[in-house]
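Marked as duplicate of an earlier ticket. Keeping the data here for the record.
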Amino acid sequence: MRSKFLHLWLVWLALCVLTALPVQADNSATPALLEPINQQLDAAEQALPEASADPLRLDKLATQAAALSQQAQTCINDYGQQQTQTKQAVDSLGEATPEESADVKLKRKELEKQQQQTEKTLSQCRLSSLRATTLLEETNRIRQLILKQQLFTPSPSVLAHLYAILLEPGVWKLEIIDTVSRLFQSPIQWGNLLMAILYGSAGLLAGLFWRKNMQQRHQGRALTIATSSPTLGYMWRYVLRFLPYTLFALLMALSLYIAPVGFPLLPENHLIGLTRIFGGTLLGLVLIRFIWLMSGRFPWLQNTRLYFFVSIALLLAVGSLWLGYQNFSAFLFSGVIGTLCLLLLAGLLLKIPAEIFDGLDEGRAPWQQRIRQHLGLKDKQFVPGLVWLRLTHTLTITGLAALLMLRLWGVPEQYLALFLNRLDNGFEIAGFTLEPLRIIGGLLVIALLISMTHVLKTHLADNWLQRTGLSRAAQETATTVSGYVGILLAILLGLSVAGIEFKNLAIIVGALSVGIGFGLQNIVNNFVSGLILLFERPIRKGDWIKVGNAEGYVREISIRSTTIQTFDHSDIIVPNSDIISGQVTNMMLTDNMGRIIVPINAASGSDAEQVMRILREAAEAHPAVIKDRSNMKINVLFRGFGENGLNFELRCFIREIETRFTIASDLNLAINKAFRQQHIEMPLPQRTIHLLPPETEPAKPTKTPDSSAKQVDLR
């Protein structure tokens, strides 16, 4: 009876949970949205044969197909998630049994019907996605065929041009006359050309004036820029040098673009063809020479052998130009020149921020030193969180350069759009969705929040906690704990922005719990011990402690270990578990006062009372010795008679135990001076050596012939 009641109670609880679940979610992709998607796909498929000869229409169809593919993929994602929720709801009811109630049967029937409808809609979404993908692939295939035909359309080669000019009489004269006549007969807008020259001259004068003004007034700024980033300093000097000519060219080109002069198009004849071929050849050779010279200045060109591949591509472009494939040659020239410019720009965008980041870590420029001072950083201490900013910057610049490189070499824009959409939506790897853009955003959030945590920690220690009246130990604890809490929050927020769900982290932590229990016992022990040290504060930063054979000042207390700096200025890393479980002597736990003991020996026969008076007077005369506290009196003891004299001890308390060796040295100097003035001798170790007279050696027996004979015992 009890088990039956428990079964009914569980069924009722499952019904309540299923009723509260949002089984039918409000999705952005619905079956009503599939109808316009299918209609647009039908229209695009019908228009594809007519657009096969028009590259512009093909590009529009490809863009439309890419957009429809994204919409279909959104439909698949939404209904796939809904299918998973419905399946989980059905599984939670368990297997159907004849004894289950009518409500459970009704709910099961509704869920199964909804599951069938979801699967049907999901199949339609997948079909629409397949049609859109097929349409996109077909448009790109046709576009590639058209591009291939355009690139490899032959034109007269250099031999054909030379043959026509040299062997056909009068051809070159007619071509020269035709070219000159077109140049002079075409209407040229000389007024527009004059205005372009005037605009360019005005830009040249403005650039010269600005350069002179900047060189005279902003020499300090140029030095700061060069200190912050040497590469940026070089660029600044080049900008100052070439800015007037750059303004002249830009303003003149802009004026000619707005008001064209109307230069005539040159005829396509053999003379112009030869000029184009030899001009392209000269350009290719100059670029090859330039890239080989630059390979000696840029190590990455030398290491990657990029100059070798660029030279091969340029030689191939020159060869194609000589053979008559002008379009293919122009494609190679534009690709190589664009690649070099893109690599140069990407290299500058990578190197200049890297130098600025290095300057922040080292504090080169004055503004970087102010930032480090504001963050509360010490010398040779890296800026917290800057490594994540470096990684984010490198990934961003490298990714953008790669995308632009692909577009430069003819990858269709639709494929890049799909790739960016896939980057936005993420890649599914072994059941885990990897979203690169969100990961980069998460790294950026971690970098910024860790830097803000360090700033907050610095202000908390220097300003806010100073006004609370808390003890030094409590202030250090609050500062350290706030730093760890800030870093933990930064990591959690960064993971959340990166798209990592915490339930997945809980699974990972649960899987690693066994390893933590066995393999990471010491780390966990030190971590817990560090928390105990931070809250109980048996030792503090700056305390003089003894832990085993280690003795020195506490330099840093971290969550895992404590750093002790010895008097030899060497650092000893002590695990926190050793401090918690072992015996620790803290010379400065409650206060900095301590006692020193100075042993003194006087020669036998010295006046003991006079010696004790001298010792007391020496202690009372020293300013660092405590004399005004009843529980810390100056004691002078006559310890007894030693082997070499009389043994005394001076015991006194000092205000700073850190100076005990210096104070002991001062007291010894004062006592030695007083002993010499009072003619009191200090005994030296005495040793008595007794010399014994040498003994007379017995005479050696004389050897006889039978001395070697064996003696016989006659007893």
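See parent ticket for discussion. The two ends are 117 Å apart (CA to CA).
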